[in-house]
Amino acid sequence: MGSNRSGFVEFPQTLQSGTAAFSARPICCCVTFLLPDIMAGDSDSSVHWHRRRGMTESETTPSALTDAMAQGHVTSQFVGFRLADQDYAFRIEQIQEIVIPDQITRLPQVPAYVDGVTNLRGTIIPLINLRRLFGIEEQSQGAPTRAIVVNLGDRTIGCTVDDVSQVIRLSEEDIQPASSLPGSQQAEHIFGFARHHDSMLVILNINELLSPDKLDAVHQAATAGDESARGSA
After folding, report:
1. Are 27 and 34 a contacting pair, CB within 8 Å?
2. Are 135 and 165 in contact (CB under 8 A)?
3. Whole-angstrom distance, CA of residue 3 vs CA of residue 109
4. Long-range contacts of range 23-28, CB-CB < 8 Å, 24 or more positions apart?
5. What is the C-alpha to C-alpha distance for residues 192 and 210, in angstroms, rounded to an integer?
6. Of 18, 93, 181, 214, which sees the most CB atoms within 10 A?
7. Which one, of 83, 50, 65, lies nearest residue 202 by Cα?
8. Could you tell me if 83 and 161 are in contact, meaning their C-beta atoms sit under 8 angstroms apart?
9. Residue-wise over 81-101: b if at least 16 C-beta within 10 A, else e?
10. Hey, what domains does the chain have and what are their CATH numbers?
11. What's residue 115's pLDDT?
């Protein structure tokens, strides 16, 4: 590990997006990955990438980007991540940063999918375990994880995943809306599906997935099939 002029610590395994690499720096209880400057030029901001070059801030809201994609004017960028053997993605404009969780404070009497809370540079944020939320079998103890920190209105929430892969650019034509599939009313947290290289990418709707008042419904919808299978066994 070495350090560059900006004071960031270079990580031995950097996350690649084209020719730009993710850098990392240690903070009070986790290590932060700063996404490369692919969306704006403000090098002083850890979230400077949330605005595309040549677009105003109002044009980068989720609704504005969805409208623009529907008109075929722009592509949209997503951050890919993995849970077990399935690839998922979030829209990049709602992601604040990616961290390696370290000190997690467990909380009593909370759902199993809540890992606890952590201190992110003085801000206490909850951590939602997406494996548990979706009813996916736990990883082996000590397996590496990442936490994707997202902005949900005035809330900041972290969600733990197995790994974060890359920044993915998709056009509207690349995405099949989940609303076109049977039973989609029970899975409003799924925005759509896209073929990326040799895998199927599930694109998740952050607002529908991580809103505190919707987490229980997401968990129930995600685990309903498993419970039915156990009941018929």
Report:
1. no
2. no
3. 42
4. 27/99, 27/120, 27/121, 28/119, 28/121, 28/122
5. 16
6. 93
7. 83
8. yes
9. bebeeebbbbbbbbbbbbbbb
10. 16-226 (2.40.50.180)
11. 95
Q: Where are the alpha helices (DSSP H) in the chain?
A: 62-70, 130-133, 206-210, 215-232
Tell how far CA 164 is from the center of its chain: 8
Phi-psi region of 216 (alpha: psi -120 to 50; beta: other; left: phi over 0): alpha
C-alpha 47/C-alpha 58 separation (Å) is: 16
Structure tokens at 7: 């004071």
CA 45, 116, 78, 178 torsion: positive or negative? negative
pLDDT 10s digits, 145-198 = 999 999 999 999 999 999 998 899 999 889 999 887 776 666 789 999 999 888
What are the residues facing 98 on neighbouring strands? 33, 148
pLDDT at 223: 87
Mean pLDDT for 82-95 is: 95
Mean pLDDT value across residues 74-95 = 94
CA distance 3 to 64: 38
- The CA distance from 12 to 25, in Å, is 12
Could you report the per-residue pLDDT of 9-26, keeping only the tens digit for each? 232 333 434 433 443 333
Q: pLDDT grade, residue 74 (50/70/90)? A: confident
Beta strands in the chain (DSSP E): 16-17, 20-21, 23-26, 30-34, 76-83, 86-91, 95-101, 114-120, 123-129, 146-152, 155-161, 163-170, 175-177, 190-196, 199-204
Using a cut of 0.70, tell me whether the model's pTM lies above it: no
